Amino acid sequence: MFFKHWNIVDCVKIVDFPKGLSVNLSLGFNFRLEGKHIARHFIQQRALSGADAINALRPFYFAVHPDFFGQYPREREVNENSLKRLNGYLENLQKPGAQSVQPTKLTFYVRETKESSDMQQDLLPSGFRSVSFTLHTKDVLSTVMDVLKSCSLPVEHMKGLKASTKTAKTSPGAGMPFYRPIKWDKTYYSFTGFRDPEQEIQQAKRVEPTLSLWLRNNEPEATKKHSISLPRRDELKRLKKELCQKFDLADIRWQRSWGVTHRCCQLQSLSRLSQQNPEALINLQGHTIVFTDQSGMNASGHVMLGTMDVHHQWTKLFERLPSYRSLQQQTEWLKERISLLLGGAQVIHVERLGPVQPIAEHYSTLNTFHKTLMPRCLRLHPRSLQGLTITLDNNRYTPSLHEMGHFIIPTRCDPPKLQAFLQSHAHEARQRMHRTNQLQAEEEAAVKACLQSLSLRSLSKEPSVTSSQMILCCKRLLEQRSPLMQGLHICISHFYSVMQDGDLCIPWDWKKKMESDVF
After folding, report:
1. DSSP secondary structure string for all residues of 294-306
2. Which pTM was predicted?
3. What are the two backbone dihedrals, phi and then psi, of residue 315, each rounded to the nearest 5 degrees?
4. Cβ contact 347:366 at 8 Å
5. pLDDT means per 10 residues in the chain (519 residues)?
6. Rounded to an integer, what distance in angstroms lies between the CA atom of residue 273 and that of residue 163?
7. How far apart are CA 438 and CA 301, in angstroms?
8. CA–CA dist 492, 317 (Å, integer)
């Protein structure tokens, strides 16, 4: 979080200008002379304190916090990335002596709340509103107001803060520090060599990096980092293959996008445990291991190893695996019973990079839903909804149809209304599923073409990037055919970044090179 303890009073140092330099004194400051000395410090008050900002942004956090997007990994990932960028923007604003903050573009998926109930017409098929805006603000108060207004959230609670801020600004004689924006004459920047923040903001608005220019500036760093990571990458492959073969594991995965070094450490830890206590890992046979934030078994039946847990906790988990498998069998039985009641529709659980749902919680959700359906027998033909899928959501109150074609059903719902919704949207659900399958096949073909034509080591995407966006991005990469991408690991995202192991993140909607960009 950006909300650290900070002093609301900053001192701004005024430099001594050399003799003969023309300085425009109409800068909004009154210079007070005491003998031959110039007062060197002026007091600047922040427009909003950290504690006030926390309270002011509560409606916003309640509407976009990733923890509320458990079954929507794409939306969760977008919100996580945007929150990080917003926090970074706010941190830069509160730094003492900060002169400029680069404009920042943010995108959030806003969930339905009481405050935003009047925005129902803007909801996406997933049940959320997509909001994009760019921050150009220069203080915390303006930033908070801009965020709330952009997300159509109430700002009435800000009136008191704005009034107190205005009072503080207009009454410096009462012994309180006053606030005035610092606006230096252009000759100050020419003489000192400091950057003009207003000029930088204007340039940032006009100029966005093109892919060719960004690659030219960052490819050497990515290549260097990739070369350094090669021994770790080889070690990671060796350890994974060795553990899978030794204990007959189906696969080893990671919930988060940890770096190569982090993943190696996790496999080395598991390897040491297998050498110290090989009997403990016998129960892992046939399972998929997922390194994540907690230990247990997830809704898909995969064994979760918490990265913060010690060997003793992992060993206890392995001993309990037979009981976990029994619970998994009971969940499968419940899914079959629910499918019979819902005309053949299958209950699925989408995890990917979203928060993990433990098997016990998944069983409880299924059991609650099954008990809701049982008293009211639905009049559905046994195979009328066969081939369709549904997910259960404890935080939803009305059913909806996801853009990918699966139904999103509240755990506690009215069976007759549910039946009517399923029947009236079944045809559209099949069409969306067919379109999703087509897009996935087209995406796989586009990725394969890029790997071959551009000589990439790997090409992946973040969960927040849709198949349509990935396809468009791949087609444009094939058209540009940048030689600087050869031999690199590329991840399609929403922003530019060089990762610690040399992987390059590029936005799916990158700008094409201009005539002035020449390799």
Report:
1. S-EEBTTSPEEEE
2. 0.60
3. -65, -45
4. yes
5. 37 35 34 36 44 76 79 77 82 68 82 54 63 84 87 76 51 41 57 53 56 90 91 94 94 85 92 90 92 89 90 92 94 94 89 70 93 83 89 85 90 90 94 94 96 93 88 94 88 87 90 52
6. 61
7. 28
8. 36
